[in-house]
Each structure stands twice: as structure tokens, then as C-alpha cells.
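Appendix B. One record, verbatim.
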Amino acid sequence: MNIQSYLKGFSAYLKLERSLSENSINAYHNDVNKLFEYLQLAKQDITLKAISLKELRDFIIWLNELGAQASTQARVISGIKSFFMYLMEEELIENDPSALLETPKISRKLPDTLSIHEIDQLIAAIDASKPEGIRNKAIIEVLYSCGLRVSELTELKISNIFEETEFIKVIGKGNKERIVPIGTTALKFINIYLQEIRVHQTVKRGNEDYIFLNRFGSKLSRISIFNLIKTLAVAAGVRKNISPHTLRHSFATHLIEGGADLRAIQEMLGHSSITTTEIYTHLDRDYLKTVITEFHPRA
């Protein structure tokens, strides 16, 4: 079975018909690859038309035995269902074996957050005497001020900053655009970086509009932002396993703790469903319980 030719068509379908980002397309591609790797390991050299619900269920059981979490299994199942949907639409198969494939129940894990003090510690740990220090300070301020995903930060462009109104245009998942307010402190550090540091760099062709650049004049990679956050956490003495996404979680949590409307937070985070945002309300309830316990006279 020449699976690569089917995967090539599947990738084109996801890009043109579903308007998914390259990261999402790669994830779906890898998940379907896992299925066919399993079939090879299980020595089941069968055609696409011969794949049944049993093979798919056995594959999920295999993933579970490997230690894949429910969230990972659910993502893989989503990719497989999309793949067979594509095959059905292209009339490459007559029946969809994934139609009755059940998605495992996913426990709602509370995301890690940083306190306002810990965020201040991260920023204070940056050496602003170095050129990259000014850039890094702007990066942390923007991540926390706007609640951006790491990919949204690396793709952020100078032309998408509206300084007078204090908003930025963000390109999110599936190339969906949204407008997000940006704080004056984050704007201040962006301007310092652009006017005092970036202006002296030789910018690589095609990267002229990206805000944050590496020392070679190219836009920053996602992994470089991850490494920056990890390094700062160690320097600041923050003993939590944090990532750029932790600042996004903290942004949402601190807004809710301050009484912000959940719908407004949904818009700013770029969540398509309010239920995705509602996970942060659990943190708020814990926070309210702490306030009652520590400060209420009748607690």
C-alpha cells in the first residue's frame, strides 16, 4: 500500500479545504502515519478498503499500552477520522471504519500558572544591558500582556501593531485573525527594542516585517522561545515546569481573578468554544476559596 501518495493528498485537503496551519497539518500527518506504522508492526499488510473498526480499536489499545495519555489518543483519533473523511469525499473508500471509533474521555487538567510576583521575577532575571535582553523583556511582556500562543508571537509583525489604539492583529490557529488589546508596558518595550536594537540589525530578506529576530536577522523559532522561558525560570528561581504557554494560562487566570468577562477572555485567547476557556474558571474558584479561608472572619 503506497500510503505516502494518500497522505500527500490528505495534506492538500487539510490545507485547501480545512484551511489548517502547517503545524496542524503535520500533526494530522504524523497521527495517520502512526496508524500505518502499527499495521506494519502488527504485520497486517491490508488495503485501505480492508481496514475495519477492529484494526482501529486495536491501534488505540496499542497506543494506550504505550502510555499515551487520553488527550493524545483523542488527538490521534481526530486525525484518523479526518483522514477517512477525506478518503470518503474522494470516493477512495465506500465505508468509513472510523465512524464508530470512540474518543476516550479526557480529564480536565488544570494548567500551571505563575503568580504576578513570579512573572515579575522572570522579567527581573533578564539582563537588560545586553541587546538580546531588551528583546527578551519585550517578548515576556507581550506573551503575558496579550495571552499569545508561542507560534502567534513568532509570527507577530510590525505592520500588525496599532499603537494609537493599543491593539495588535494576531494570526491564530487555522489562519484566523483576531484583534487583541496590548498593554502600554508591552508597547513600550516593543518600541525600545525596535528603535534601539532591531534597527541596527541586518535583516534577512523576507523577515523585514517580523518583530522579533534572532542574531542572524531571521524571525525567532518556537524552540528558541521555549529555551528562553526555561533559562529565565532557572535564573529567577521559579521552581515550576513552565513554558511559553504558562504565560498564556497566567494571562487568562489573572483576568478571571480580576473579574473579567469569560466571553471577552475567549475572544482574546482565540478560543473557538467557550468550554475551552471555562477550564480557567476552576482556578478562579480555588482562588475564591483561598480568599474566603484566609480573610473572611467567619471562615
